[in-house]
Structure formats: structure tokens, C-alpha cells
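Async update (no meeting this week)

Hi team, since we skipped the sync, here's where things stand on the single-chain job. The sequence we agreed to prioritize is pasted below, unchanged from the tracker. I ran it this morning and attached the output directly underneath so nobody has to dig for it. Comments welcome in thread, and please keep replies under the output.
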Amino acid sequence: MALEEINDKYMAQHRIRLTKVQRSYPSCSGSLAPGLAADMHFISDVIAFVGPACLFALEPVARLAAYWNTPIITGMGDQPPSEGEISVASRLLRRYNMKNRSNTAGILNDKSKYPTLTRMSYCQCRLTKVFASIFKQFSWKHIALILDRSDVFSLTVGKILEQGLKKGGMLAFEKELDGNEDESFDNYLRDASMYARVVVLCVRGSLVRKFMLAAHALGMTRGDWTFLDVEIFQGSYWGEHDWKAGDLDDGLARKAYEALLRVSLLQPTSDKFQDFADKVKQRSVEDYNYTISEGEEINFVIGAFYDGVFLLAMALNETLWEGGDIRDGRGITARMWAREFSGITGVLYILLL
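Output:
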């Protein structure tokens, strides 16, 4: 969709037509992604990369793009890897923890290493600031953190929050669990309750429900304790965080969830975005024979990729009008940074950190 529109709006006046070169891989792979990027660079001679979305595939591709002086735009950049790539994730998380203890800007913030990379989406590293503002608002100073090391999204978010809470002197209790094991969640909650009355659950969606049911059984959902969790996007792909599971515990779960405060990404609600979402659903059927489930949202990230392609086109258009080189990745990227424009997802400003 975006490519068709930018060709008509920007590229046609230069007698240029951009075409898509697409490669895919089955999971978030830090080993496959750079190989595919090399094929696209040397064989297809691409002038820009759009994606990957996943952080641990994006990082090595962004390094290569910097060496090739090729622009790279992603609508995400923080999606955790698959469980098969957890060793890669662990190495990057260790690097992040060692080098950025006093910096919450994220793994990819070093512009000297990634000078042609532009990210259009949120950064999980900002979650520390979000939670800090909540804790300040309610004067909460002693926090318990429970995280699921078997779920990579939970592990990634949990470790980032752990670092921020330790830095702020608020982490009173921290415990890791293996969400694949059939454990008694009561014991984790009893231990946490000895140190704090605010409990952050960095666990997969199905475990949030189990923890809240256990908390309800222990009498911890009557207002004396508060629970928080993180659900960046809604949908089964990201894990179901809802209280409703269609079983006999639904009534208890619904009551228990009254003690749960959820942190989620703001979903655009403008008419412009809704029109865009309708077109995406239509094109998914026409182009890919894929029907998006009824009630499933077209999330922010899809819009962010769309806006990223438009931002790239604006920079290419300006470069061409000024007689510049459209293969000067650093020059094109510089035109995208420190810039404000109105996109599908709202008014965007690309930060130059």
C-alpha cells in the first residue's frame, strides 16, 4: 500500500519507480537475517531496508547497513526473539545490562554504530520511565517483581524493569520462575507480600490469570495490594491477558482483575487510522488470501511501518530534487531524523538522541 502511494506521490515526478524485494524467515533469527540482507544487497542491489521488526534480527542487519551506507527503517525494533533464539537474546541482554546501567535509551541508541537506522516505534526501554511515573503518582516506593524466564518477551521486559527499579532503589523483591513448570503461585505471592504491596507481573498472559486467581484466594485483591502487568498489544499472537477463559473460574478472575493495573501501548483511534486499518484488512485478503480475525486490531506497528516507508520517500524525494545521491544512506537518514510529520499513527517526531 505504502509503496504504491509513494510511487505516485513522490517518485513519479522523478521518473523513478520503487519495487519491493522481499525476504522472510520463520522466526526472529540473528543468524538468518543478516544472510538474507546480504543477498538483498549484493544480488538485488536494494537502496534501502524496511525491517526487520525483531530487535535481535535487526541489530546485525543494522550493523551491515551502516557498513554499506544503506538506510534501514523499522516499524518496531523491540520485538523479542523466538525461544529458539534465546541464546542470542541472552547475549544482547547481557551487553545491554553491562554497557547501559545508567542509560535507559536502549540497545540500538548508539548512533555511531547504527548511523543509518531509523526506528518508528516505541522502545521497551521507555517502560522504566512509564512505571516510574506510575509509582511516583501513587507514592509507591517498595516494588516486587516476578518474571517468567521461559517467555522471552517477559524476560526482556522484566530485566529492563529490574534494572530501572534497582537504579531507583525501589526493588524490594525479585523472583524468576519457569512458566513451563506446574508450580504453586501462592508461594511466590506470599514471599512478595513480605516485602512489598505492589507486585509487577512480567509473565505470559495465561500466567497473569493464574497469579491473579491465586492472589484472590490469598485475599490480596481487596485493595491492600496492587498488581501491574504489561500487554503491549492485544491478540493471541502476543498471549491472551484477558480474565475470560471460558471456564468455571471466570467469575473469580473477573473480580481478581479489579486489582490489576495494565500497561499497554496506546492504540491510534483517529478516523484516518481506522480507514487505514480497513484497507489493510481488505488488502490482506486480496493480496495474501489471509483473513484477519473479527475483533483483531490492526496494531500500531503496522501503521509505523507504513509511516516509515513514507518518511523514507520524503527523504528520497528531497535528495533527488537537490541533485543528491539516493545511495548516500547517511545523508538520507539525516533528513529523516529530528523531523516532525503527520502520519497514519499520528504526529510523529523522529528523535535525534
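Quick observations from my side:
The radius of gyration is 22 Å.
Residues 81-90, 96-105 have pLDDT under 50 and may be disordered.
Reply here if anything looks off.
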